[in-house]
Amino acid sequence: MGISEVTVGDMIPSKPEKRCCAMCGCISFLIIFILFLTSFQQVNRLNAGLLRNGFTGEVNLERSYLPGRYFVGFWNEFMHFPTTLNTIEFADEAVEEGVQQLGKLRSRDKDGKQIWLDVSVQYRIYPNELPQIYREMTKLYEDVYISELRGALQRITNEFTVDEAWKDYSAVNQKMLDECKTVLLPRHAECWGLQLWGVRLQTEYENQLVRTQVRKQAEETALATQTQTEYRQKTEVILAEYVANVTVINQKGQADKQRIERDALSAAQSALVGAQGDVLKIVFDTVKLNATDTTTEKLMSGSELVKYQNILMLKEKKSSNFHIKPAL
Length: 328
Description:
Pfam family, one: Band_7
Transmembrane segments: 20-40
Protein name: Band 7 domain-containing protein
Domain Band: 62-228
CATH class of the domain at 86-201: Alpha Beta
Radius of gyration: 59 Å
Low-confidence stretches: none
Order of helices and strands: HHEEEEEEEEHHHHEHEEH
CATH topology of the domain at 86-201: Tetrahydropterin Synthase, Chain A
Strand content: 15-25%
Keywords: Membrane, Transmembrane, Transmembrane helix
Number of strands: 11
Mean pLDDT: 82
Structural class: alpha+beta
Distance between the termini: 173 Å
């Protein structure tokens, strides 16, 4: 008979005693297999874990476990601790899911004024220091952080006046952040961030502060207006100087233009007179009465020269009827 022909009935012993032993063996194997599977436990993502005995409740503080699957035995289980950023918020407003509802920080400033602060803190535990955290604070570590942060932040507010919170917000917020880091570091956690986002005084102080700020703003506005007026006046003076300079330059240019035109006209007239004199001299030297047997060469007299010039001028006029007859 081949293996393919074997049935379940063939594998079960025919005798009751052997059949009972086979059944017990199967059950034992099944139980062992289930226990083997349940011996693998997982630390979830974004968490760290501590191993705890499921029967005795004893926690193993020898090491912490990062995310992953581990063979730890079916009698053990993991306690999970979030390694992401967690928020502590000191405020009266509604908070997001997973954040404890805490009240405002109540304290006094450097001058003794009663103040209420809205502060948000983000922290993150160090996964490798999880055994120390559980040894010192068990799973109530956040309550310890809240208590110590409340006291430390209330003390740090005694070092500055309330008006510094908005006059020099960065410095005040940095002081509180440094104090937060100082508090959480020995408690095996990192103070990742802190935001001071609300400051409230008693009503009478707030009203007085508002009046003071309004008065200061009015003074600053008046000073700015005065400065603007001074600069406007200086600008107008400079503009007037430029306008005056432009007027002077224009007048000087106009005078220079007229002078140049007069000089050019005078030079032209002088050149014209000179040219006319040269022409007369040429005419005087050229036009002569030729010598004959009975007379000698004779130059024109002054009156004859003028008359000759007039005759030439009449010849230039197209409307004149004067014509010079050619010599025979």
